[in-house]
Amino acid sequence: MMTHTKSFLLIFVMSLHISLCFSAAAQLQLLSDDPLDIKMVFSGQVLDISTDSNNLVFDYLAKNIPGFTRPPLLLAPGTRIDQLLQSTLPFCALNRIKTQRRAKQYLFSLPVHLYPSHRLYFLPLNIELSPFLNAQGQLTDLTALLEAHPRTTLLTEAQRSYGDYLDVQLSHINKAQLIQRPGGDSYKATVTMFERGRASFILTYPTTIQRYASQLTLNQVHSLEIANNPPFVLGHIACSDTPESRQFLKTVNEALSQLYQQERFLALHLRYLPNAERGYFKEQIAQQIAKALANYQVTQNNGQ
Fold it and tell me: What are the pLDDT digits (tens) for 248-259?
């Protein structure tokens, strides 16, 4: 309880600070809803794919862009971040998934990192899963699985997008079976709740389970890939539409177009993946980078 109170107070204080900062001249500021980012981004330490990739980008900018000043990084709840990204003030948020809805509301950088996509995790359950799996062992319908077992529950993170496909699936789930953990520390907190038996299933990243779950859980946990869901999730920097944020995104994109060609960009992803998945990942990241750069070139040619 004390941890939750501290997290709430921290978010409140930082949100207040955001409001006060813009009572004077506007300066671009970075936002995150994960308290770990406040400690780890810009620290130079290795932690996970998202933190390491953000640090790589900002280290590159600091070393290669004359006069570059690193924007301050502030903490805010996810709902507040969405509001600020739609404002007329220069805000940019780290680690955002680009959905069709969001693309209409604010601006996005090129992909900063590529995450193995969400999977459905569960500890041993006395239910039959085979009717909901395809020939590849993938879950074909998350909603149907929960409907068929009304006593089960699914744990997710509030104010987070799971991508276009999963967001639609989640919108159809009975609210009585959906447990949403609020708060900026939700990655760690949701895994803790899952381990304590507060939910039957958890929808999260493989890297999150690997990072936060106990050894006992890692030895017992099962997971299912979700059919028709993209195998990887792209993380971006998202910004409000202002002259300052457009210039910032232009600088970030130029840096990323260079970093994509460097071995360290791939290496920071591979260090968190099992050896068996690295070959497949290399192919995926090459395809995603080529696609992102092609789309970026089109927008540049169109003068956007």
Answer: 999 999 999 999
**Tens digit of each residue's pLDDT (9 = 90 or more) over 8-31:** 444 444 444 444 344 334 689 999
**Nearest residue to 48 (alpha-carbon basis) of 94, 82, 99:** 94
Dihedral, 72, 76, 81, 85 alpha carbons, nearest 10: -20
* CA 285/CA 288 separation, integer angstroms: 5
Q: Side-chain half-sphere of 232: how many Cα atoms within 13 Å?
A: 22
120 bridge partner residues = 203, 224
- CB neighbourhood size of 114 (10 A): 22
Amino acid at 106: Y
Beta-carbon contacts of 171 under 8 Å, excluding residues fewer than 6 positions away, are: none
Can you give the chain as a three-state secondary structure string?
CHHHHHHHHHHHHHHHHHHHHCCCCCCCEEEECCHHHHHHCCCCCCCCHHHHHHHHHHHHHHHHCCCCCCCCEEECCHHHHHHHHCCCCCEEEEEECCCHHHHCCCEECCCCEEEECCEEEECCCCCCCHHHECCCCCECCHHHHHHHCCCCCEEEECCCCCCHHHHHHHHCCCHHHEEEECCCCHHHHHHHHHHCCCCCEEEECHHHHHHHCCHHHHHHCEEECECCCCCEEEEEEEECCCHHHHHHHHHHHHHHHHHCCCHHHHHHHHCCCCHHHHHHHHHHHHHHHHHHHHHHHHHHHCCC
Tens of pLDDT along 167-182? 999 999 999 999 998 7
- Distance separating alpha carbons of residues 256 and 147, to the nearest angstrom: 43
For residue 39, give both structure tokens.
């400690």
Task: Select the more confidently predicted residue: 226 or 218.
Answer: 226
Tell which residue, 170, 238, 171, has the closest CA to residue 202. Answer: 170
Q: How far apart are CA 202 and CA 223, in angstroms?
A: 9
